[in-house]
Amino acid sequence: xxxxxxxxxxxxxxxxxxxxxxxxxxxxxxxxxxxxxxxxxxxxxxxxxxxxxxxxxxxxxxxxxxxxxxxxxxxxxxxxxxxxxxxxxxxxxxxxxxxxxxxxxxxxxxxxxxxxxxxxxxxxxxxxxxxxxxxxxxxxxxxxxxxxxxxxxxxxxxxxxxxxxxxxxxxxxxxxxxxxxxxxxxxxxxxxxxxxxxxxxxxxxxxxxxxxxxxxxxxxxxxxxxxxxxxxxxxxxxxxxxxxxxxxxxxxxxxxxxxxxxxxxxxxxxxxxxxxxxxxxxxxxxxxxx
Length: 290
Description:
Elements: H1 14-29, E1 35-45, E2 56-59, E3 65-77, E4 82-90, H2 100-114, E5 122-126, H3 133-140, E6 145-150, E7 157-161, E8 167-171, E9 180-191, E10 200-217, E11 220-234, E12 242-246, H4 253-265, H5 268-279
């Protein structure tokens, strides 16, 4: 069509394009010893759109609501290589839309299926929006798959082990007092310290602590999984500490720093979103149909 030899449009559709990206991503990552898989959502904002199909409300940068769509994406990262392993545009106004939880499960299942022959460990790094028992256990279904999740629901009930070895129920935030300090490190973070007006990238001191707990299966208390709750506290920061839940054992300084790095690297997905929006101009595309 571009050369004027035809007036027919390409038969490529979204599924074909994302399958090609997934295959290339898997090929690029195949030789890595282990992978970090970053699952995150991205808003596609169309504030001036009114006639495009199945528009839904999404958050603008100022916190207001505008028309647009949502997407879930999975970025695979090795030591040297990155690859986009999943992208799905969706709208809650689609006739066959079920729930965002089902969309998240589909992202995990398709990514895990694409990596079924990968023999190394995989660690899913997910933010507070995915703090959901169903998401955790969906990941744990798959061999050699682990997670690092920044928790949001501090009121959930977990099990904590007493000094005598008994497991007792506690609210998650009640286990904070039992955390053991494991490491103090210096790193570069974009953060606002006390006395500063704005956040900026700067060298900060981070204290890392952890406590072992057990979490329940969503379908009942007859099944539990041992996990660790890790606290990353920036000394002198205005914001709250990160509380990271992981099934990787965290028993010493090295393992605590490893979990902190997993979550820090999760922010690489923001670079992916910026690239998609600026280089592809994805928010400017005028779709003929959804």
